[in-house]
Write a structure and sequence with these properties.
With 660 residues, the chain is an alpha/beta fold. It contains 24 helices and 21 strands. The chain has three domains: 200 residues, no CATH class; 276 residues, Alkaline Phosphatase, subunit A; 102 residues, no CATH class. The chain is globular.
């Protein structure tokens, strides 16, 4: 290879487009990763970019500039998707998320609200270069302007081969050692965003545990729950209707919240005071968000490692709450104002075994908010159906999904009933509070309607949030200041996934706030316990929150894979357990204040019981913290096993059509 050949090669489109792509990759890294060294994107992104460009040099005899531009557009799209997906979900997009593309058009207002204008500069050069190429082609006709000193194709290939070989070696060094990292963010940071995308395409899922080897005893041993004093006797709500209300984007901090003396959720505040209220309750959704919440609470299984549960598991013969209640003489129905085909609900509702579903065809589009009819219309028309179901004489199970308080929380002017201080105007937290004030008002109308129609007194009413409403990664600096004001401290990851659970059965449930931790997977067994329905033959991963303590909750989305909660702490892994971060749930902040992470020795699996004094471990800043507050290595491994067992079982269930 001559020096002149190398010089001419490097002065061509190869280096020109390399510089452009490095600028774009650096933009993506600035948005997604914290405190990155300047050289990191260069070391991790450049090899895969060069592999693509070298292939162009090898195989493209003509129209190389157009092919380079097409490659530029493809890579730009990947970086742009990574930015937007991270801003909403807090994780790195991968090819599995492509299954959701048809859903994006339905939530385009949410996507646009997260779009900072400068993100669009990532495509500016494509338009400019494309325009120049078109103009030149028009000017010169079908001929291309020859290089002054053309570089012979064989010489070009020799240079490209050397660069391609070096790039492939660097790719392997970036990807191979980081395959075992639990956190997708850590993988993407070590492999590069493009390297991570390539890895997820080639990666294969873990081998499932044979379904014959999975039973409730295995799950109970992994969960290691403890018995709680009976607050409500099992079966105390036997024979009552079950009405479950899933509130859109509703986080727990709203309960009891006042802003300048104004209650944000007065109706729910009153309901919480008069019911069983669980403030330490957490979401467990996946890529499907709201639809995944519907899946988890109706099955007591976890979401899949990739994809939305409503698409991954929709063809399976699922054990579920609707089927369980139907077997015990209940009518079942679900209510959602959107098109039932959204998130494949028409199929998942069949898999869950609901007798009836009511969607946009029933609710219409009048008084529309977000996607379809308002919460007021939802509740009014649902009440008509519930009254009709009750008149049949058999109890019913009804699952209701609210939608009006959907991101980006833009209500019609005639629905805005809350006046906030000027500092909240045109902010995400301000719009969120206004939307949830409206949602609370509508819930008050629903409860009043249930009482007026004689449905309240003989029903078990269960209310919970479907998922977070204010992702940390979507907040700008002004938003962060407002969130600190609302919480009285920094807004954390634990706060973000904290949703409320309220359970009310007049004459059965006492008015008490219960501090035990719970997750959406626990709703099914808790309802079964209250209604006296047996779970003897129903596999489930949750626990009865009124009779079992010592919870362990794997988290799969919005936080890196491997994240887990116990009664006192949230653990978020990096490469694994040893370099992860522990957060105390007592104040939802870092236990090791002022430090970037807490490294807890993996051998620290001390078990505490009774009134024994807590052992302690040293933190990086030499303070002393009770080790019992943190997730141990043994608990972490058990949580991973639980998530793997859930997916193993569900993936091997028979096709529901074959069982019909």
């Amino acid at each position: 290879m001559s020096r002149s050949s190398l010089t001419r090669f490097l002065s061509g489109p190869f280096i020109f487009f390399t510089i452009i792509m490095m600028i774009k990759s650096s933009l993506a890294w600035i948005v997604i990763f914290d405190d990155i060294p300047v050289w990191k994107p260069l070391l991790t992104e450049l090899p895969l970019i060069w592999i693509g460009f070298c292939l162009i040099e090898w195989f493209a005899a003509k129209r190389r500039m157009w092919i380079y531009l097409a490659m530029n557009l493809l890579l730009s799209g990947i970086f742009f998707a990574a930015i937007m997906y991270y801003k909403y979900y807090g994780v790195i997009v991968n090819y599995h998320a492509l299954a959701q593309v048809n859903q994006v058009t339905s939530v385009k207002s949410s996507m646009f609200s997260l779009l900072d204008p400068y993100y669009l500069f990532i495509f500016a050069d494509v338009l400019i270069i494309g325009g120049i190429l078109i103009r030149r082609r028009i000017k010169l006709g079908s001929t291309e302007r020859p290089n002054r000193i053309p570089l012979e194709r064989r010489a070009r290939r020799r240079v490209a081969s050397v660069i391609l070989t070096l790039s492939m070696i660097l790719c392997m060094l970036n990807i191979y050692p980081n395959r075992a990292s639990m956190s997708e963010l850590t993988q993407a940071e070590q492999m590069g965003i493009l390297g991570y995308e390539a890895y997820t395409i080639l990666d294969r899922p873990d081998k499932p545990v044979p379904i014959a080897h999975i039973d409730q005893t295995d799950i109970d041993q992994l969960k290691q729950t403890t018995e709680l004093p009976a607050i409500v006797e099992k079966g105390a709500a036997n024979g009552r209707n079950v009405i479950m209300l899933q509130l859109e984007s509703f986080q727990n901090f709203l309960i009891g919240l006042e802003v300048d003396g104004q209650e944000i959720t007065p109706n729910l505040n009153q309901l919480a005071r008069q019911s069983l209220y669980f403030p330490n309750f957490y979401q467990q959704v996946g890529q499907g968000n709201t639809s995944d919440a519907e899946f988890v609470v109706n099955t007591s299984f976890y979401t899949p490692p990739n994809g939305a549960a409503t698409t991954v598991y929709a063809d399976k013969a699922l054990p579920s709450l609707p089927k369980l209640m139907s077997a015990n003489g209940y009518q079942t129905a679900t209510f959602h104002t959107n098109d039932v085909r959204f998130w494949n609900r028409d199929q998942i509702y069949k898999a869950l075994g609901f007798d009836q579903y009511y969607d946009i065809d029933y609710f219409g589009t009048q008084d529309s908010i977000a996607f379809s009819a308002s919460d007021e219309v939802l509740y009014s028309k649902t009440l008509d159906k519930l009254e009709s179901m009750q008149s049949s004489g058999d109890p019913f199970y009804a699952h209701i999904n609210s939608m009006s308080a959907h991101h980006p929380y833009t209500l019609p002017k005639n629905k805005v009933k809350l006046t906030l201080p000027e500092r909240y105007k045109d902010t995400l937290p301000g719009d969120y509070l206004i939307s949830q004030y409206y949602a609370d008002e509508a819930v008050g109308q629903l409860i009043a309607g249930l009482k007026e129609r004689g449905l309240w007194e003989n029903s078990l009413f269960v209310l919970y949030g479907d998922h977070l409403g204010l992702p940390i990664y979507s907040l700008d600096r002004d938003d962060e200041v407002l969130m600190k004001e609302l919480y009285g401290r920094e807004y954390t990851s634990a706060d973000m996934i904290n949703i409320p659970l309220i359970i009310s059965a007049p004459g059965v449930t006492p008015s008490v706030q219960l501090e035990q931790i719970g997750g959406q997977v626990d709703i099914l067994p808790t309802i079964a316990g209250l209604t006296g329905v047996s779970l003897k033959d129903q596999l489930h991963f949750g626990q009865d929150l009124l009779h079992e303590g010592g919870n362990l909750l794997p988290e799969r989305y919005y936080l890196p894979s491997g994240s887990v909660l116990n009664d006192a702490s949230l653990f978020i892994p990096a490469k694994g357990y040893g370099d992860g971060t522990h957060y105390s749930l007592a104040d939802a902040g870092r236990q090791d204040e002022g430090q970037q992470q807490m490294n807890v020795p993996s051998e620290d699996t001390t078990k505490i019981s009774g009134d024994e004094e807590f052992p302690t471990i040293a933190t990086p800043n030499n303070s002393v913290v009770p080790s019992s507050r943190f997730i141990t290595k043994e608990q972490y491994d058990r949580a991973l096993d639980l998530a793997h067992l859930s997916n193993s079982y569900l993936s091997q269930l028979p096709d529901r059509k074959a069982t019909q």
